[in-house]
Amino acid sequence: MAQSAPKLNLSKSMAMYEASQRLSPGGMMGIRRPYNFIPGEYPIFLEKGYGGHIVDVDGNDYIDMLCAYGPIILGYDEAEINDAVKAQMDKGFCFSLVQPIQNELEQRLIDLIPSAESVILVKTGSDATGVAVRIARGYTERNTILRCGYHGWHDWAVEVHGGVPQCVQDLTVEFEYGHLDDLEAKLEAHRGDVAGIIITPVGHPLAKAVQAPPAGYLEGVRALADKHGAVLIFDEIRSGFRVALGGAQARYGVTPDISTFGKALANGYAISAVVGKAQFMNVCEKKVFISSTFFPNSLEMAAAMKCLDILERDGIVDLVWEKGTWFLKELERVVKASGVSATVNGIPPMPFMLFDKVDEHAKERRERFYTETIRRGLFIQPFHHWYISARHTQADLEKAIRAIEEALAVVAELYPCQ
User: CA 346, CA 356: separation in Å to the nearest integer?
Assistant: First the structure.
């Protein structure tokens, strides 16, 4: 008989959460709110991280396969990166005027990324995609943006929510990943007014997890953008420095006009980059305005330079793919053996599984599964793909697979598939 794991002690987390709701709307913003996990089962406040693990304020230790939604490509508390940041800190880091390290990092990105002839350094993924879209509109003098999936929280990108005027929402049109005919239909429907096509090259939407692009798909998107005079933007905020050092565009051989990179660029420090061909990027010299007090801050640039050093020196991308390939194979094995109707998908650096909607209990299976895995010390997200980091040890990955196997056994017993 499958054994359910005992509930974790989360008393400090819950008390802090109660206090936080008096201090901030909802206690915290967006996807870190408890309803995005399993309320009452997942920690809400964390104390520290080390290697491939996180520790909550109650002292519970977890193998972390969310990796802060992607920034942690190496691991937590990386001494080399911390030391590089401290050294930069001693020089000062916020002047509004730029420091030499900006040139160094921009040249590094130009050397690594196929689409990069020019670079703008910003702070967040939403900053980067917002800049890319503004460049596309400024270059083409058109208005409509065709998008595929999530590209940030700004007005042009966010799905229908309060606070965004309808006239702004109408200028962004969704198309379906993997279906060239849908993209072509949207281009025809807005012929002559499509400024840019923005797409995450490796899979969308999040509900279906990440997938390798179908054969010929990215090439087809490139051809349609050229045919209609639209700027092609690859959102590589997640895929950059995980799929390949030069991003998915380097691995799959299709070069966009503009790209956005972030998350894994600095192993958790807040920096992102917009890179692109000079003919598009140069509209920012006079025609398109981009500015922020904090964009030139150099601590994050020092972290990024050292992170890139480690990625290149230690062959981290190949290592992550090797670990992820083993994990995906084992995940497929235990899911198949469990008898639970679920689908394993994703690519080695970003695996995932979905519970198939074979009957009315799909939601209950998902909630029970993630309750059991978190209780067993595995931190994975019910609604977002997972990540493999360099510091996940073989022992970590084996423990994660055991937790998944035991959780699936509980699910199979409570909610058997007919």
Answer: 15
Question: Architecture of domain 79-313 in CATH?
Answer: 3-Layer(aba) Sandwich (3.40)
Q: What is the pLDDT of residues 44-103, one digit of tens each?
A: 999 999 999 999 999 999 999 999 999 999 999 999 999 999 999 999 999 989 999 999
For 338-359, what is each residue's pLDDT tens digit? 999 999 999 999 999 999 999 9
- In the chain, CATH 3.40.640.10 sits at 79-313
Kindly report whether the peptide bond that precedes residue 165 is cis, defined as omega within 30 degrees of 0: no
CA distance 317 to 143: 37
Does the domain spanning 11-76+316-414 belong to CATH 2.160.20.10? no
Instruction: Give the chain's end-to-end CA distance (angstroms, integer).
Output: 19
What are residue 233's DSSP bridge partners? 198, 258
- Residue 417 CB-density burial (10 A; 0-12 exposed, 13-18 middle, 19+ buried): middle
What are 167-209's pLDDT values in tens digits? 999 999 999 999 999 999 999 999 999 999 999 999 765 556 6
Whole-number pLDDT of residue 2: 87
**Mind spelling out the 3-state secondary structure of 94-132?**
CCCCCCHHHHHHHHHHHHHCCCCCEEEEECCHHHHHHHH
269 CB contacts (<8 Å, ≥6 apart)? 81, 85, 299, 300, 303, 304
